[in-house]
Amino acid sequence: MPANIHRKVNIIGHQNPDTDSICSALAYAWFKNRQGGAVYEARRAGQVSRETQFVLDHFGVAAPRLCTDVSPQIKDIDIREQPGIDGEMSLREAWGRMRDAECDTLCVVDADNELLGLITVKDIANANLDLFDVGVLSAAGTSCRNVLATLEGELAVGDADTRFTRGNIHIGTTPEAMEATLEDGDIVLANRYEAQTCAIECGAGCLIVCNGADVPRTVRARAAEKGCTVITTAFDTYAAARLVSMAAPVRHFMIRDNILKFSVNTAIEDARKVMASVRHRYFPVLDVEGKYCGLVSRRNLLNLHRKQIILVDHNERSQAVEGLEQAEILEIIDHHRIGDLETSGPVYFRNVPVGCTATILYGLFREADVTPPKEIAGLLLSAILSDTLMFRSPTSTPLDENAARALAVLAGEDIPTYAQQMFEAGGDLTGKSAEDVFFTDFKVFSRGDIKFGVGQSSYMTHKNRTAAEKLIRPFLPQALSHAGVPMVFYMFTDVQSQSTDLMCSGVGAESIVKDAFGADFKDGKAVLAGVVSRKKQLIPALMAALQART
Predict the structure, then answer these.
(1) Count of structural domains within the chain
(2) What number is the average pLDDT over the span 209-238?
C-alpha cells in the first residue's frame, strides 16, 4: 500500500479520559484540519464518561473512535498490492503472472474479493513435474478455454465453454495401439489422419492437432458428429504434450486450509513472530472488511511508517496509550507538570500553567484568528468548566475564566445553568458498577520508585456523592490489583462546598494522607476542606509526604 503523503494524524488524550481530554482532542482536530497538509482525527484512549457523553449529545458531536494502542500495524507498512486471481486461471497463466511480477505467490479470490486460497510457484512446479498425472485436466474440470489459451490454439470444432470432466491425456500413435488403450472422453494429441480418425471413432473427447496442421474436412465433420472437440496449435507434439496439463485451473492445486494471513490491523510484532516460525515468503493481507487487499513479506516490515500522533491533556508515559514509544509524537498540548516522555526528535510542545487544555487551544484559535463554530466552542467551554469546577478549583486562572465566558457566547450557553446540568449528568450512577465509576477518571503517578493511582469524581449534590462513596468503598482493595499499584486514592469532590472526601487503600496509604494533610480518617474517609484539585492540591502533597519517607 503506497505511502500517502496526506497521512492520518491521531490526536489523543490520556487513558480513562475526562471531558477535557476528549473535547480538546475533538476541537484540536477540527482546528488542524483547517490548516491542511494531513488528515487529523480525534481519538480516545478509554470509555466516555457520562459527563462527557452529556456534552457530546448536547452539542451534537460524535464521540471519537477508541484507540488504546498505537503500536505499528500491517497497515503502517507498504503492502504489496498484488491483484487477486480467479480460481479458473490456468497454471500457465498464473506462472506467467508470477514471473512478470517477480512474486512467487498469488492469492485466489472470488468476485467479492474474498480470499479462497493461494498458489505458489512451488505448487505449480509440483503440478508440472507430476508426469504420471494424465487425468489432471478431467479431475480439475478444466475448461476448453483454458486449453486454448495455454496452447495458444484455435478451436476447429466444438464449444469453447466445454469442460473436460472425464478422460486422460494421450499421445496418438498407431490406430492399433489407440484402439487398445483409448477410452471415452480422452484428450488425444494426434497429427496423422489415421490417428485422428481412430481417436474420434474410439470416443475421444478432445483432439489436439499440433504443428499448425490443417484439419481435414472429413475429420472435422466426423468430430462434430461424435461430439469431439478439435483444437489446433502451432506447438509441436512434444511442446503441446508438456504444456497441456498446465491448462488446469489453479483452484485444483491452491492451498485452501490453514492459510497464514494477516489483517491490516495485525500488530507488526505479532506478524514478525508468525513469519519467523514458517518458511513462507509472502502472506495475504485482509482489509478491515475481511477482503483481500495485497501481500506482505518480511522485507515489507523493514519499511515501517510509524503512527503519527499529537498528545493533548497529558505528557506522562504512564497515562498514555500503549505502544507510544513506537509512534512518532508530533505535538504535545498540555497544562500538567512535565513528565517522563521522551521523543525521537524535536516536537511542538505547548505547556501553559492554566486550569484546562481547552484554554490553551482557545489561545491557539485566537492567535490564528479562527472563530470556532458553536459545537466546537461548546466543547471547549465544557472542558474548561469541568476541569476548573466552574472556576472553583485552585488550578483555575483568569485565562480560563475569560476563555470560558467568551466561548459561552459563541456556544449560546448560560454558564451556571449549563454547568449545573453537566455536573449532574456526570454524577448520575444509574446502572454503573464500582469499577466503572472508579476508573472513569483515574490516573497513575510515579516519581522514581514511588507509584500510586488517584481517581476523582465531582458532584453537585450530596445525594450523588454519598451514593458514589457507598459504591466505591468496598471496591478499593480490588482496585489495587486492577490498577497494578501499591496504593490508590479516590477523591469525592463536592463542587458546591469546595471540599473532598478522600478514601484510600494500600499499605500505609492512610498514614501518608495524615502526613500530607494532617487529616484523620473517620468511617473510612478523610474530609479535606478546600481541596478540589488532584493536580495542584492532592498530588504535590502526597508526593512530598512519600518522598519524606524515603
Answers:
(1) 4
(2) 95
Alpha carbons 254 and 124: distance in angstroms, whole number? 9
Tell me, yes or no, if the pTM score tops 0.70. Answer: yes
Query: What CA–CA distance (Å, rounded) separates 453 from 318?
Result: 10
**Degrees to nearest 5, angle at CA 183 with 181 and 186:** 105
- Answer yes or no: do 145 and 220 share one domain: yes
Rounded Cα–Cα distance for residues 242 and 68 (Å): 57
Domain boundary among 426, 458, 486: 426
CB atoms closer than 10 angstroms to residue 40 = 22
Of 251, 238, 243, the C-alpha closest to 163 is 251
Would you state the cell numbers that stand for residue 519, as one nine-digit string? 487529616
- With a pLDDT cut of 70, the percent of the chain lying above it is 99
| Boundary residue ending a domain (247, 274, 291) | 247
CATH number at residue 174: 3.40.1390.20
Q: Band of the pLDDT at 460, cuts 50, 70, 90?
A: confident
pLDDT over 90, % of the chain:
81
d(CA 322, CA 16): 13
> Residues, the chain, total?
550
Does residue 146 fall inside a structural domain? Answer: yes
With a cut of 60, say whether residue 300 has pLDDT above it.
Answer: yes
